Amino acid sequence: MTPDARREAAVETALARLDLPGKVALLAGADMWSLPADERIGLGRLVWSDGPAGVRGERWTPDDPSVALPSPTALAATWDPELARRAGRLLAQEARRKGAHVVLAPTVNLHRSPRGGRHFECYSEDPVLTGEIGAALVAGVQEGGVGTTPKHFVANDSETERYTVDVRVDERALRELYLAPFETIVRKARPWGLMAAYNGVNGPSMSEHQELNNRVLREEWGFDGVLVSDWTGARDTVRAALGGLDVAMPGPATVYGEHLVRAVREGLVPGSVVDGLARRVLRLAARVGLLAGAPAAVPAEQLPAPVDGEALVRELAARSFVLLRNQGGILPLAPAPARLAVIGAAAAEARIGGGGSAQVFPTRVVSPLDGLRAALGPGAELVYELGSDPRTHLSPLAADCTAELLDADGTALGTAVLPEGEVRWLGTLPGGVAFGGLSRVRVTTTVPAGPAGRHQLSVRGVGRFRLEADGAVLFDDVLLPVGEDPAAAFLNPPERRFDLELTDTGTAEVTLTHFLPEAAGFAGFGLVSFTLGHAAPTASAEELIERAVAAARAAEVAVVVVGTTEEVESEGVDRAGLRLPGRQDELVARVAAANPRTVVVVNSGAPVLMPWRESVAAVLLAWFPGQQAGEALADVLLGTVEPGGRLPTTWPAEEADSPVWEVSPTDGRLDYSEGLFIGYRAWQRRSGAAPAYWFGSGTGYTDWSYEGLEARLTGEARQSEEARLTGEARPTDGSAEALAEVTVRVRNTGARPGREVVQVYVATDGSDRSRPDRQLAGFAVVEAGPGEQATARITLPLRAVQSWDPAAQTWRTNTGVHTVEAGRSAGDRRLARALVVPQD
Ligand code: BGC
To answer: Which of 16, 409, 539, 762 is deepest in the core (most CB within 10 A)?
Structure first.
């Protein structure tokens, strides 16, 4: 018997030994992050963990850190599935270290609008790039014996009213754009799980969507894994069970449990349906090695070799950086400048990841400033200026804090030492303290000695707080949540600030007490989350900019790091606009006017407007680069490594030009009225405005010429004519079937070795206006030394020339003449060849 057959047999044996309540018990969380064990059948406790940019584990505290990877937009910007696969192996390694069995990743919703709050957490505006990167990441994680849940199935492309919005999307757009990455991942990488979105699609909620969950996902694509709800996303017992939702998370209170037992007994849900749900949960447990007698999908001796997490994060970041402008070849900075001005809040305090469930506490952070200082060494003069501080909340107080967990009488139940003024406990409390008895959390610390003058302290959180400094009470009141997203209290809580006068040697003893409400927690499960913030005195906003300008003027080169803030890019809320927050645009413009050798590094996970982009020497996008941010930045700026990234999404020049701007539902509905025309597919139809930078844009440190393109139909496609004549049915799975073999020959015409992302698009003959003019069909990364040639070999899938036919409910091959084009972006065409697709 094969291991797969043995596993299936063990699953059936376990299933047969369970009665109805026993089966139902497998289908709901025991707590925030786990499914229950069942010793009777040798089933272990299964732990899920977020997420896409690092594995948090069951605890979400700075004292249980995780390797923080670059944001998923960065991973997609590498355009390199092999690298994504290695990132996946690192996630698996981290999951094992943290006792997690399934990682709640990747997020493969699309960049429909640049305003999407979780844009940073998704890959691209293009389903092919998203699908390929996602499939590779899933393969990498699962090679490490850990499961995945590509999410959020489907059409969770923005955050406003995300729990309830009904997304209205036509079938073609659904199939050709939003379902497409999930289909690629399911067919190619066979994920062991998938997460249902909160939202509805054309009516039914995705946790109850019979058509998409049972018929498309399972029957048509052959998905045999577990479909888990998004957290709190399962709302109706019968509809969820019949709609194919295997697991309701978190627990213990869910719509399954006793409700499902009753529904079966009342005949509302057939017992066979529950068998199906339970079978899939047992299969998942077996795959990750939690079912006695069932071979794990990856035996211990076949686990991949350990990954050096920090080294990989550094490599990933540098490979993701996108160089959009490099006037006069200012980059790399070689020889290294003797006098460098480094400017910007994000230079000293890097934004390494976006906010929300994808956020992890890093094992350490190398800021751009630290990275450049270390790389330049003591011989160079490096001057740092804040320039402008866009943050609207104070950073957590940077000192060890003692947190005491107290009961109602003030008795300490436990204590924890925190590395900074941030408390974030979700699902579990330090030292195993139970949520039930917890009444207060008291944080005590000392404001470190700093400059004399007006310091600021802040309280950020929801609920009642009491803040004392050197015995004086600064605040004793309640902070109320803003906005309507139930998670907002946690993801984006309000802040109150207080002044504190200190002398330059003076410190202050600070105590912040948080009084928990009677029923502690977020949506019924345990959560304690608040921040004690601090800021030392600074000069006025104008003085800060003037100092930065003066530093830039006196330096050989000015590096300005600009970026978004935690409030701008976070789960639970869409972006109001794309402008850089605060006075950062003015800062860049004034620095660039003072020093023509100004390099701007953009630290954001999603598009921002760059009104100064034509007046600075260089623009380098660093995304949210993960914890080794500064090392990767020094590598790229100083030229040890070239920036390897290409845009995974088109960046607009103006907000008003964005093809899709509206992300707010009307009467609970969000209409995807643009159909297939998002991102570059929409820009191609514009006669007026052009984007600032097309999808696919970016260069390294060398030049490339495109020298040859060949495209020939693969055997299968050529045989289709024969198949038609012999009456054989054509397979409809065009995502896996090959259409053509394409080779692109490129030459490195520059003076240093380099890497090129070769992009292949398929253009229509224009006769059918319902189809986008030109779509990405395949891509490959090649390397070559100076003067050398490299050949990219790319297999185009049949799907590249197919459209979904809603009337026939199948994929239709668009026969006739297509043009295969190789280019450096969606707006660039180097070589073209006709490709005639024969009749079906
Ligand atoms: C998010 C998911 C996440 C889950 C658990 C939800 O609110 O949408 O992406 O995996 O929480 O943290």
So the answer is: 762
Closest ligand 1 atom, residue 487 Cα = 7
Judge: domain 309-389+552-649, CATH 3.90.780.10.
Answer: no
Cα of 100 to ligand 1 centre, how many Å?
15
Judge contact between 463 and 472, C-beta under 8 A.
no
Candidate of 194, 206, 357 to mutate for ligand 1, largest count of ligand atoms within 8 Å of Cβ: 357
The CATH classification number of 3-295 equals 3.20.20.300
How many angstroms separate the alpha carbon of residue 232 from the centre of ligand 1?
Answer: 9
Name the residue at shortest CA distance from atom 2 of ligand 1. 230
Superfamily of domain 401-535: Galactose-binding domain-like (2.60.120.260)
* Atom 6 in ligand 1: residue holding the nearest Cα: 231
732-788 per-position pLDDT tens digit: 455 668 999 999 999 999 999 999 999 999 999 888 999 999 999 999 999 999 999
Token reading at 392? 């609207």
Domain boundaries, the chain: 3-295, 309-389+552-649, 401-535, 702-837
Q: Find out whether 439 and 515 touch, Cβ atoms under 8 Å.
A: yes
The string of DSSP letters for 546-611 reads HHHHHHHHHSSEEEEEEE--TTTSBTTB--S--SPSTTHHHHHHHHHHH-S-EEEEEE-SS----T
pTM above 0.90, yes or no: yes
CA 231 – ligand 1 centroid, Å: 6
Can 230 be counted among the known catalytic residues? Answer: yes
Cα separation, 213 vs 232, in Å, equals: 18
Distance CA 679, CA 124 (A): 9
Give the position, in ligand 1's atom list, of the atom nearest the Cα of 121: 9
d(CA 276, CA 17): 15
Q: What contacts 31, CB < 8 A, 6 or more positions away?
A: 250, 251, 252, 427, 525
- Contact (Cβ atoms closer than 8 angstroms) between residue 813 and residue 798: yes
CATH 3.40.50.720 is held by the domain 702-837? no
Alpha-carbon distance 219 to 732, whole Å?
Answer: 13
Q: What is the mean pLDDT of residues 278-293?
A: 98
If we measure between CA atoms, which residue out of 19, 9, 8, 14 comes closest to residue 44?
Answer: 14
Number of the ligand 1 atom closest to the C-alpha atom of 105:
10
Report the candidate in 727, 604, 642 with the shortest Cα–Cα distance to residue 352: 604
31, 121, 230: which to mutate for ligand 1, most atoms within 8 A of CB?
230
Distance separating alpha carbons of residues 470 and 500, to the nearest angstrom = 10
CA 34 – ligand 1 centroid, Å: 14
pLDDT at 734 (0 to 100): 59
| pLDDT at 425 exceeding the cut of 90 | no
Q: What is the spatial distance between Cα 631 and Cα 315, in angstroms, rounded to a whole number?
A: 9
Confidence (pLDDT) at 716: 56
Q: Which of 680, 834, 704 has its CA nearest to residue 758?
A: 704
pLDDT digits 0-9 by tens, 127-139: 999 999 999 999 9
One-letter identity of residue 353 = G
The residue nearest atom 9 of ligand 1, judged by CA position, is: 357
Of the residues 31, 38, 80, 230, only one is catalytic, namely 230
Residue 282 C-alpha to ligand 1 middle, in angstroms?
Answer: 23
**By C-alpha distance, which of 455, 459, 448, 466 is closest to 422?**
459
Chain position carrying tokens 């709050």: 117
Average pLDDT, the chain: 94
Tens-place pLDDT, residues 717-729 = 555 544 544 444 4
Residues near ligand 1 with C-beta < 6 Å? Answer: 50-51, 104, 151, 230-231, 357, 487
Percent of the chain with pLDDT over 70: 96
Residue 519 confidence class, pLDDT cut points 50, 70, 90: low
Q: How far is the CA of 238 from the centre of ligand 1 (A)?
A: 23
Residue nearest to ligand 1 atom 7, measured at CA: 231
The best mutation among 48, 55, 104 to test binding of ligand 1, ranked by most ligand atoms within 8 Å of the C-beta, falls on 104
